Amino acid sequence: MLNDTPRPDDLPEAPSAYAALPPDYPQAPSGAGPGGSSGPGTGGPGRSPRLLVAAGVAVVVVVAVALAVWKGGGAEPAARSTALPSATRSSSPAGPMPSTPVPAPTAPGGVPAGLVGFYTQRLDWSPCSDNAKHRCATMEVPVDYAKPTGDRFTLALRKAPATEPGKRLGSLVINPGGPGGSGVEYAQYASFVFSPAVRAAYDVVGFDPRGIGASSPVRCLTDDDMDRLFSSDPTPDSAAERSTLLAEADAITARCATRGGDRARHLSTTEVARDMDVMRVLLGDEKLNFFGGSYGTFLGAIYADTFPTKVGRMVLDSAMSPNQTDEQEMSYDIQGFESSIDAFIDWCVPRSDCALGSDKAGARQKIVDLLDAVERDGLTTTTPGLTRIGEGWVGFSIFMCLYSDTSWPTLNQGLKQAFAGRGDILLEKGMSVVERDESGAYAPTTYLQAMIPVRCADWPRSATDPALAAAQAKAKREHPLWARMTGELYDNCRTWPTAGRTPKGSTLAVGAAPILVIGNERDPATPIGGTKQLAKDLDSGILLTSDHDGHGTYYAGNSCVDSAVDGYLLRGTAPADGTTC
């Protein structure tokens, strides 16, 4: 996901916590581990949002998901390529970005009168405090687009200017997923996640979505609430235990809604897509060039469906479709998890130090037995306040180690320690992902703050469906390790006060320019089934798959993928639909 040879001028003077720094980069103060989350900037679980899963799922360059995971082959390349429209050049001048305000833009035709002021505000770019070569700014958007004269969010933006102004093609807006990942932080590390050629030609612009990070943050969960999400028993064995689990989840969701107030009810991805269109105009771009990873692919798809004629060059990495059903999500989750755990087992068992021994056939059962023992007895740790951890933390941490093969050695050592009854290694991994320190404090910007409001807005409530319940029960019996990693399946938005989005269930983004959708064949977080579905659901989707493991495809070590993506972004030439690298 991240390049091991970053440009020094792209790095801050003191790195902040960042979940996906290369292994050889100096450790961030908060202990964020390498190879983290949702995609080269792909964030978050790329899973569907609704059901609480204490074991969790995560995001691509930025982190994981501790709540909600269940809603529910590439063809041989042809000897052709697809030419795209030329990238739309920004109307702003090429070269170093000014530190003074630029002239106010003109609102595009068709903008409602109440929104003209938002589309014509000026971006006052100034040097970022941690890197004078980057530019930072803010913009305002309405909390409720139906009431534009009401409350406003202030969004934080960060721009890494094109390194060769003479080659500049415009802006490339980026989102790392999550939901809840910081696009400002993502842009801070632009040279880690994009090739030198892309950096030369585009101003890479990241933003913290409404209510997240530095963008009028909505903080609806306490540290205790977040600890409870991981400490609850995710696999209840009786009706009483299940009732306790559901009551805890409902209480946390209700408290989040109360604390978050009206702003928390307006954190949907549909509203973020509208914010992004305002941003496009303020950046001076006729069309939106966009790179989204993990849950950021959901944002890209929603934008393209809402503003199809404004799509420029769009790359969706490690994807999921806004149309995915519960049944499809279940199928994708099983395939994604099992292909990833099998890849880890294939790597581990030939090693003399493999925690699972040398018998590949029995390796999965050893993990099942371990999780059963953890549910019964827990693991001891040296972390104050978490001196004994259960299935929630352990399953989440194991899952996060599957995001990248760079974390497989950590998983092997963590399992070895867990078989001896201790959980320090696994807990440290999980805590680094969710930005929890040893005192029990979570970073104010942790993506967990966004999980409930965003997911409850983005997906419909789960209906009681006896056939689906039976299918779920059958799947859990046939896939016991997946069942323990996934935990109890239920709707954690039952006490959220507003309804979720209703999936369109039809072709998306009709009339948009070609959109490149990419993914790894063995991705535990956004399984390849969802990536293939999104490419199919998009009217102009082009699928490119990578025969690799992990979460995040571009700039992750596959030169074939990198060349194809760069060719698309720089020259407007997409690979043939169905190409496999």
UniProtKB/TrEMBL annotation:
Basic and acidic residues compositional bias: what residue ranges?
Answer: 1-10
Bias kind Gly residues: ranges: 32-46
Kindly give the Gene3D superfamilies that the UniProt entry links to this protein: alpha/beta hydrolase
**Which superkingdom, per the lineage?**
Bacteria
Where does the Peptidase S33 tripeptidyl aminopeptidase-like C-terminal domain lie?
Answer: 481-581
Spans through the membrane: 51-70
Pfam families from the entry?
Abhydrolase_4 (PF08386)
Q: Which UniProt keywords apply?
A: Hydrolase, Membrane, Signal, Transmembrane, Transmembrane helix
Residue ranges with Pro residues bias: 95-106
Q: Which GO terms describe its molecular function?
A: hydrolase activity
In this chain, the stretch annotated as Disordered covers 1-47, 76-107
Q: Which residues form the signal peptide?
A: none
Q: Which family does it belong to?
A: Belongs to the peptidase S33 family.
Protein name as annotated: Alpha/beta hydrolase
